[in-house]
């Protein structure tokens, strides 16, 4: 390959990885691999400057903006940081700084590098008016309503001496506990889990539904302050100032004088950072004086006065002792590697503690599916390499085949039968996972389905969470969701069980006292009022997620109609494809499922959509179209929509020349407003709208 082709290949690859990372919140390779590719490209470009492409990933901030939010131009560009994984390069950075400052004395501030997404917040007269993502560095997504869900972020600054307009920046992140909770939930719902808290934070800050963002427990650390006229003299002053004004500044920062002290800080935090409640991937070193920052300036992509040092994910050898197989709610079989430290090779497995990796002991790593096992070429007894990606989920990255001579291995044979119920496993064409087809009797599938049934987004029986289902299932009291509706106080009172968490080895005692029983039964009774679309989702039909369930409920209006629908009738529904139609038809053809639905119906659960045809209050908005944007004082958005519809109007999603009214609430994006003005659309305030419909 000639250098030109090499460069083109690297550019294509990096652009693809950037797109996946910023747009889809997926990391196809580790950050380290990504950074190595970027470094290779940079070296080639330095060697052949003529071949450098104008929009090379080495010159541009990698992020993008989306179409889902208003686009906002940054007042000051939001750049990336130069990074390094080694000490020599850090010393080279220090040399460049010294030269750049012509021998003036300087100081550094060391901070932790939080692993989340960059956010910018604008305050006017002390009030938070805008929250924006970094986007491509020049323009970002306006996500004000979502950032307002961060509890630690002041919506109004109480201090007196704040400048009239200022911008602060920080890292929005998802604390590790929120991340674990979210992933457990995704797992119950059969949705894809996030690989690490960064991807989870990025996805959650960009949700359309701020309520859901709020539930996900995001947080933010602030680390930068910007104004048109200088307010603070140094980064240190600004951090202290922000703290005094009530902003959440991470306490981990330190002022130092030399690069050796920077290295000390790096070593000090290498292990300590793993005890923090959030993910960090390195440290950031910044020149303290703002004047010196200005002297050093910026490249197209990053400041010359700062650099980040990233810790390499710890990678250690371990022994693959055995592989166990987990069966999920949908019957998918996931192989799990059971590992021990190389010093524990001879110990019985129940005595091993596991490999010490990034602050914890690791005994298990998911192998995802049979293809992954093949790809790695694993054998039982192999010496493998384990790494924690995003510092959270351990994974096997390779095999040390040279060890096989000394420590003989046995072939790893994927089971042909379900480890839980002995049914023969199957594999659908085009899918990587093997699954157990015995969905009506395989225990983890039954239990998984009940857990799905009670989920907040399904029947919402929260009082049955945390091990209670497990108890009821193990005692044979509840084998299908319908059994829940036969429970009585007498059967429940006094039940007890110790539940062992295999991961932590901790035992949790669950016992049903009077209050618990009352809560459980109340929760179950209340679930009878949950709307039909949730009931449909709660059944856990393959490929029928919450959104599909909603569409089906709106279309068929009742369980009976849906149950009797043929394949052809099903695919005639907008947005319902062959795969979903097939799955629904086959679900209702199974006698156990028919029985379940009949019992649920008898128990009094909603089997019909109660969406009443809209009864008109007036027809005064007949033929008029509206777009609703922003936040309102007297209405939730849905109520407003209803108000418009019951008066004969229609609500659209986008501003166009044909639109009659833009109903503008507080905090609506300036670009939408601008567009409406340009197109001559009438802009209504909440009061004006109210006056309009009250005049009828
Ligand atoms: N794995 C992949 O496929 C893939 C793809 C694209 C990018 N990436 C990773 O993302 C990196 C590029 O992302 P980036 O441009 O956000 O750079 P970066 O994450 O290396 O560093 C810049 C960012 O650090 C954050 N930050 C955290 N703590 C900070 C602090 N105390 N002070 C200042 N900033 C702080 C800010 O959000 C800032 O924008 C790549 O180097 C790579 O590691 C990975
Ligand atoms: Zn099974």
From TrEMBL:
<feature type="binding site">
    <location>
        <position position="171"/>
    </location>
    <ligand>
        <name>NAD(+)</name>
    </ligand>
</feature>
<dbReference type="InterPro" id="IPR012340">
    <property type="entry name" value="NA-bd_OB-fold"/>
</dbReference>
<dbReference type="GO" id="GO:0003911">
    <property type="term" value="F:DNA ligase (NAD+) activity"/>
</dbReference>
<feature type="active site" description="N6-AMP-lysine intermediate">
    <location>
        <position position="113"/>
    </location>
</feature>
<keyword id="KW-0235">DNA replication</keyword>
<dbReference type="InterPro" id="IPR001357">
    <property type="entry name" value="BRCT_dom"/>
</dbReference>
<keyword id="KW-0520">NAD</keyword>
<keyword id="KW-0479">Metal-binding</keyword>
<dbReference type="InterPro" id="IPR004150">
    <property type="entry name" value="NAD_DNA_ligase_OB"/>
</dbReference>
<feature type="binding site">
    <location>
        <position position="418"/>
    </location>
    <ligand>
        <name>Zn(2+)</name>
    </ligand>
</feature>
<protein>
    <recommendedName>
        <fullName>DNA ligase</fullName>
        <ecNumber>6.5.1.2</ecNumber>
    </recommendedName>
</protein>
<dbReference type="InterPro" id="IPR001679">
    <property type="entry name" value="DNA_ligase"/>
</dbReference>
<dbReference type="GO" id="GO:0046872">
    <property type="term" value="F:metal ion binding"/>
</dbReference>
<dbReference type="InterPro" id="IPR013839">
    <property type="entry name" value="DNAligase_adenylation"/>
</dbReference>
<dbReference type="GO" id="GO:0005829">
    <property type="term" value="C:cytosol"/>
</dbReference>
<feature type="binding site">
    <location>
        <position position="134"/>
    </location>
    <ligand>
        <name>NAD(+)</name>
    </ligand>
</feature>
<feature type="binding site">
    <location>
        <position position="111"/>
    </location>
    <ligand>
        <name>NAD(+)</name>
    </ligand>
</feature>
<keyword id="KW-0234">DNA repair</keyword>
<dbReference type="Pfam" id="PF03120">
    <property type="entry name" value="OB_DNA_ligase"/>
</dbReference>
<feature type="binding site">
    <location>
        <begin position="31"/>
        <end position="35"/>
    </location>
    <ligand>
        <name>NAD(+)</name>
    </ligand>
</feature>
<dbReference type="InterPro" id="IPR018239">
    <property type="entry name" value="DNA_ligase_AS"/>
</dbReference>
<keyword id="KW-0862">Zinc</keyword>
<comment type="function">
    <text>DNA ligase that catalyzes the formation of phosphodiester linkages between 5'-phosphoryl and 3'-hydroxyl groups in double-stranded DNA using NAD as a coenzyme and as the energy source for the reaction. It is essential for DNA replication and repair of damaged DNA.</text>
</comment>
<keyword id="KW-0464">Manganese</keyword>
<dbReference type="Pfam" id="PF03119">
    <property type="entry name" value="DNA_ligase_ZBD"/>
</dbReference>
<feature type="binding site">
    <location>
        <position position="310"/>
    </location>
    <ligand>
        <name>NAD(+)</name>
    </ligand>
</feature>
<dbReference type="InterPro" id="IPR010994">
    <property type="entry name" value="RuvA_2-like"/>
</dbReference>
<dbReference type="Pfam" id="PF12826">
    <property type="entry name" value="HHH_2"/>
</dbReference>
<dbReference type="GO" id="GO:0006260">
    <property type="term" value="P:DNA replication"/>
</dbReference>
<dbReference type="InterPro" id="IPR004149">
    <property type="entry name" value="Znf_DNAligase_C4"/>
</dbReference>
<feature type="binding site">
    <location>
        <position position="442"/>
    </location>
    <ligand>
        <name>Zn(2+)</name>
    </ligand>
</feature>
<dbReference type="InterPro" id="IPR036420">
    <property type="entry name" value="BRCT_dom_sf"/>
</dbReference>
<keyword id="KW-0436">Ligase</keyword>
<dbReference type="Pfam" id="PF01653">
    <property type="entry name" value="DNA_ligase_aden"/>
</dbReference>
<feature type="binding site">
    <location>
        <position position="286"/>
    </location>
    <ligand>
        <name>NAD(+)</name>
    </ligand>
</feature>
<keyword id="KW-0227">DNA damage</keyword>
<keyword id="KW-0460">Magnesium</keyword>
<dbReference type="GO" id="GO:0006281">
    <property type="term" value="P:DNA repair"/>
</dbReference>
<dbReference type="InterPro" id="IPR013840">
    <property type="entry name" value="DNAligase_N"/>
</dbReference>
<feature type="domain" description="BRCT">
    <location>
        <begin position="616"/>
        <end position="696"/>
    </location>
</feature>
<comment type="similarity">
    <text>Belongs to the NAD-dependent DNA ligase family. LigA subfamily.</text>
</comment>
<feature type="binding site">
    <location>
        <position position="436"/>
    </location>
    <ligand>
        <name>Zn(2+)</name>
    </ligand>
</feature>
